[in-house]
Amino acid sequence: MQISGAVVLITGANGGIAAHFIEQLLGLDVAKIYVCARNVAKLNPLLTLDRDTGKNRIIPVELDVTNPQSVLNAASQCQDVTLLINNAGTSLNQGLIAASDIDSARNEMEVNYFGMLSMCRAFAPILKQHGGGAIINILSLLGKVNLPFSGSYSASKAAAISMTQGVRAELTGQNTLVVAVMPGTVDTELAKEWPNPKVAPAEVASSALQAVIDGVEDVYPGEQAAQVSAQLLSDPKGVEKYMASFLPGMMLAGTNA
Ligand SMILES: NC(=O)c1ccc[n+]([C@@H]2O[C@H](COP(=O)([O-])OP(=O)(O)OC[C@H]3O[C@@H](n4cnc5c(N)ncnc54)[C@H](OP(=O)(O)O)[C@@H]3O)[C@@H](O)[C@H]2O)c1
Separation of 14 CA from ligand 1 center, angstroms? Predict the structure, then answer.
C-alpha cells in the first residue's frame, strides 16, 4: 500500500512512539492524520507540526479506546480512513501474583486487547469502503514471552497478538493488510522503569510504515526484538527461563537486561 495520499488515524497520539509516526507520515505526504487522545489538550504540541506547509493535515479527535461510545463517535467522524494505527497502550508494571488485586490486569486487558479489538471492528467497514487499506497494531515482543516484572501487560499483548492474527484472517477477503509490530523495549515514558537496551521510537515507526509499503505482516523493530524473536524459534524454553529471572519489583532503569 502507498502511504502517500493515505488518510491515517492514530490512537494514543500524544504518546512517545506516536510523535514519530506523525512526523514520518507528514514526510511521506499523507493526505490527513486524525490524531486521537483521551485528553485533546495533550495534542496541542502536535498541531504546530504541519503549520508551515499550510496544509493543516492534522485533525485532533477525542478518543478513549475503552469507551464504546467514544470509539463509535470517532468512526462516524473519520469515515475516510485508509490506514488505522492502533498505538494506544498501557503498562502498569505489575506481577500476576504479586499485584494486590487484578484491577491492573483488567485495565491493561481493556486498553491493550479490548480497546484494540473495538477499533479494528469499528474501522473494518470503513477500510473496506476504500478498497481495503491497512491496520498497524502496535503489540510487543512481551506478547510472545512473558516478562514477570509486567506479567499482566505481557498477557494482554499475547491476547492482542492472537486477536491480530484472527482479524488478519477475517479481513483478507476485503484486501486489508494487518501488520503486527512487536518491538522489544522502546525508549518512551511507558518503559522508563525498564532497563536497557531500548530501541528508538523513530525506528519502531519507520519499520511499521515500511511494512505497510512492502506488504509485510509481522515486524520486530530493533536488534533486541530481532534477536529474541529468532531465539524464540530456536529455544523457546530457554527464552522463557531467562525472562523468568525478571520478577515483579526487581527491574531498575539503567541496569542491563
Ligand atoms: N515503550 C515500550 O517499551 C514499548 C514496547 C513495546 C510496545 N509498546 C507499545 O507501544 C504503544 C505506544 O506506547 P509508547 O511507548 O509510545 O508509550 P506512551 O508514551 O505511554 O503512549 C501510550 C499512549 O496510549 C494512550 N492511552 C492509554 N490508555 C488509553 C485509552 N484508554 N484510550 C486512548 N489512549 C490511551 C496514552 O494516553 P494518555 O496520555 O491519555 O495516558 C498515550 O498517548 C503501546 O501500545 C505500547 O504497549 C511500547
Answer: 9
